[in-house]
TrEMBL record:
One of its GO terms (biological process) is exocytosis. This is Exocyst subunit Exo70 family protein. Residues 1-35 are annotated as: Disordered. Component of the exocyst complex. The lineage of its organism: Eukaryota, Viridiplantae, Streptophyta, Embryophyta, Tracheophyta. Residues 13-35 have a biased composition (Low complexity). It holds the Pfam family Exo70_C. Belongs to the EXO70 family. One of its GO terms (molecular function) is phosphatidylinositol-4,5-bisphosphate binding. It comes from the Eukaryota. Residues 172-512 form the Exocyst complex subunit Exo70 C-terminal domain. GO terms for cellular component: exocyst.
Length: 518
């Protein structure tokens, strides 16, 4: 059976994975166009999707063209406003959001969900920037106030007029703007419910975690990015209408509660998805490996998937700190506490990976190949950990690669060298005579054993060139050095060597051909 050939329970994929049949999984590799190894494009700063300047330019153009002013003036918060919202959401390429309600049960119409999540993120960021720019434009139209009692009376009268006449004025425009902004944000937030519910029911909908989780992290980052601007927007509206008794005067508190509730719902879903991810990657049937697969494929597919997942978590450490705060504590967590928790999460995953590798290797009967399997996989782990630049206190066993090299040399090559150097503590002439005859035969046995090991291991695969060269040098140091000493010692002791099949240099050339694979 090939490496990771059975159902891995999660449908993970790796952009850097080998395409060889021996390393390919029928289900762990089920979404090959998607992976944890996306690089940095979708991580950290959410503004990278289209660029902050581009978003600002789009928002500025929408406001400058007078498009928003027309929509807001026509909007009165009634059911008849749905066509206006459809026009507005169509401009943002998310008109489908208006079909969602908070009690919706996600169905196939919402897929491919990963595409919808990215479109939603761009739309929300653009929407918030447009609303912010529109509010600034309204603010510039604000009537000049006169300090003192007179200004208070004028402000009160303007608000009173706005409720008794149809004449447009500043306060009335602010009220209409607040209603429009509230409706827009609330309708956008309904999609969070769909995503969270889909994550909880992903087994029923066959949604692969490698598709959902990255998008969910980006959505969480997007909401966190937009939150201060949205709250500032409604705070200014609430402050302006503080003397009123209408719904708009309470918008800040209401929207603050709703935004935090939606973000909390998303963080709960993310943590639930992360538990599923880890469980799926640690399932026994995701770690099956045969002798043929271990020899031919180098690195286990699930090792790549887990390290891609670790990379995703590390590159989203700032987001995960807030998710940790939402999910586990519900209170403020310092940057240092949050950072340490993310590192601990990653080291725990890597530790679990190491245990699964050890368990999987037990199914490989050849002890030498078992070491090569562990060496290949752990070397990849260490390479990826080094690229992440984890803090020095993170508990990663960096000496494991050398340990596997030492064990490999002992189990594969040390027994062969015993044919060259046999201890003989007896001083009897008869024993010495027999010892000389035995040493003659031992060279033949050494050569036969060398040819056997060389033929068997020549096409074992070590994909990393530096690791391959490192192991070759270690074998040459052990085998060729002892072979040279043997050939030099016998003539020095008055013994004759039979003609060797290979010189030390020829032996070295053969050993330098090892581990290229087929």
């Amino acid at each position: 059976m090939a490496v990771g050939e059975e159902n891995c329970g999660g449908g993970w994929s790796s952009a850097s994975s080998s395409s060889s049949p021996a390393a390919t999984s029928s289900s762990c590799n089920s979404a090959s166009s998607s992976s944890w190894g996306w690089g940095g494009d979708y991580y950290s700063n959410i503004g990278r999707w289209s660029g902050v300047h581009e978003l600002h330019a789009i928002a500025h153009r929408i406001v400058r063209d007078g498009y928003m002013q027309g929509l807001i003036r026509a909007f009165d918060g009634a059911a008849a406003d749905e066509p206006l919202l459809e026009m507005w959401f169509s401009q943002l390429d998310v008109e489908w959001v208006l079909l969602i309600h908070d009690d919706d049960n996600p169905g196939q119409d919402w897929f491919p969900l990963e595409d919808l999540m990215d479109r939603w993120i761009l739309a929300l960021l653009t929407m918030v920037q447009v609303l912010h720019n529109t509010q600034l434009e309204l603010h510039s139209k604000r009537p000049t106030t006169v300090v003192g009692v007179r200004s208070a009376i004028l402000l009160f009268m303007s608000r009173l007029l706005s409720t008794t006449t149809n004449s447009p004025n500043y306060v009335q425009e602010v009220v209409q703007f607040a209603r429009f902004a509230e409706a827009s944000i609330l309708r956008m937030l309904a999609f969070v419910h769909v995503v969270a519910l889909t994550a909880l029911k992903d087994n029923q909908n066959h949604r692969a975690p490698e598709i959902l989780l990255p998008g969910m992290l980006r959505m969480y980052a997007c909401i966190s990015e937009a939150l201060p601007t949205v709250l500032t927007l409604f705070k200014q509206v609430s402050d302006l209408l503080a003397f009123g008794s209408g719904h708009e005067s309470q918008l800040f508190d209401a929207m603050h509660h709703i935004l935090l509730h939606k973000r909390k719902k998303l963080s709960n879903a993310i943590w639930g998805m992360m538990d599923k991810v880890k469980s799926s990657l640690l399932m026994d049937n995701c770690w099956q490996v045969s002798h043929e697969a271990a020899a031919a494929s180098g690195v286990h597919e699930t090792t790549k998937l887990m390290m891609n997942y670790v990379t995703l978590l590390w590159r989203n450490d700032d987001v995960l700190k807030f998710i940790l705060q939402d999910y586990h504590f519900g209170m403020f967590v310092s940057d240092n506490e949050g950072f340490n928790s993310v590192v601990n999460l990653i080291t725990d995953i890597i530790s679990s990976l190491g245990h699964k590798l050890e368990e999987a290797s037990l199914s490989i009967m050849d002890p030498g190949l078992r070491c090569i399997f562990l060496l290949n996989n752990w070397h990849l782990v260490l390479q990826r950990v080094e690229s992440l630049d984890l803090p020095s206190w993170a508990l990663i066993e960096t000496c494991m690669a050398q340990r596997y090299i030492d064990i490999y040399l002992d189990v594969s090559w040390s027994p062969m060298l015993c044919h060259l150097f046999i201890e003989n503590s007896s001083n009897s002439p008869q024993k010495n005579k027999l010892f000389g005859l035995w040493r003659y035969k031992s060279l033949e046995r050494f050569e036969l054993e060398f040819q056997r090991i060389y033929t068997e291991q020549k096409f074992w695969k070590i994909p990393d060139p530096m690791l391959r060269d490192r192991l070759r040098k270690a074998i040459i140091q052990k085998v060729v050095t002892h072979y040279s000493i043997y050939l030099e010692e016998r003539p020095a002791k008055g013994m004759h060597n039979p003609p060797p099949t290979n010189t030390p240099e020829q032996l070295k050339e053969l050993l330098e051909e090892l581990f290229e694979g087929y």
